[in-house]
C-alpha cells in the first residue's frame, strides 16, 4: 500500500497536539495503545501457536520509544509469549517508567539492567523475535554508548532472529534512513506509530513487513497533518501497509 509520511519535526508537533489542552490525551494513554499495537503486530507476524519456545527479547531505550517497549512486553506476556526486557538506562525522572517496570514484575516478566548479561537471549530458535524499542523519532545521530554496542550486537544476529522495530529502526535518521558508516539495523518488521516517518521509504523491499499502529487520531486530525486516516479493520490495532 502506498503511504504518506510526516517528518520528525511534524511527528513531534503531532504528539504535542494530541497531548495538548484541546485534545487532552495523556502520554500514558497513547503509550498503552502504541505498545498494544506492537504486541499485536508481533502476534500477527509470529503467531504464538506455531512456536514451541516463545521467548521474545524486548530492548528498551531511555525515552518514550522504550516506554512503548515496556508496555508491549506486558501485552506479549498476556498473549502467552515469554518476554524478557533489557532496559539498560532507566530514567528516574519520570515515575511513570518505574510504574511500567513494576507492572512487568507483577506479570513475572524479567527486566534486566546494565549489569546483567543479555546477549544469550539473542539465539535462534529460543527467541522468536527481538523488539527494538531503543530510539524513536527523537533520535539524533551519532549514537552514544551503551546503545552503539547494543545495536552492533543486534546487527550481528538480525539474519537469524527477526527484529521488530518500534516506530523507527534504531540508529536510522528519522528523515534520511540508514546512516552511512554505522552498523545498520535491517528489521523484519517495522511498526510505524500514528503515521510512517520518511525513513520508512528506505525499507528494503521483500525484507521488511510494514505495519502502521497507534490507532488514536481522528480523520480530520489526520488530514490536518497531511495524511489520510488508515483503514484499520474491525478491532485491529495495526494495519499492514
Ligand atoms: N503519537 C505517537 O506516535 C506516539 C509515540 N510515542 C513513542 O515515543 C517516541 C518518541 O519518544 P521520545 O521520548 O520523544 O524520544 P525517543 O524515545 O526516540 O528518544 C529519546 C531518548 O533518546 C536519547 N537520545 C537521543 N539521541 C541519542 C543518541 N544519539 N545517543 C544516545 N541517546 C540518544 C535522548 O536523550 C532521550 O533519552 C516515538 O518514536 C514513539 O515510539 C509515544 O509512546 C506516544 C505517542
Ligand atoms: K525503535
UniProtKB/TrEMBL annotation:
The keyword Flavoprotein does not apply. PROSITE patterns: YJEF_N. Binds 1 potassium ion per subunit. It is found in: Cytoplasm; Mitochondrion. Pfam families: YjeF_N. Residues 11-229 form the YjeF N-terminal domain. One of its GO terms (molecular function) is metal ion binding. It catalyses: (6R)-NADPHX = (6S)-NADPHX; (6R)-NADHX = (6S)-NADHX. (6S)-NADPHX binds at residues 64-68, 136-142, 167. Its cofactor is K(+). One of its GO terms (cellular component) is mitochondrion. Its EC number is 5.1.99.6. The keyword Mitochondrion applies. K(+) binds at residues 65, 132, 170. Keywords: Cytoplasm, Isomerase, Metal-binding, Mitochondrion, NAD, NADP, Nucleotide-binding, Potassium. Belongs to the NnrE/AIBP family. Catalyzes the epimerization of the S- and R-forms of NAD(P)HX, a damaged form of NAD(P)H that is a result of enzymatic or heat-dependent hydration. This is a prerequisite for the S-specific NAD(P)H-hydrate dehydratase to allow the repair of both epimers of NAD(P)HX. HAMAP family: NADHX_epimerase. This is NAD(P)H-hydrate epimerase. It comes from Lachancea mirantina.
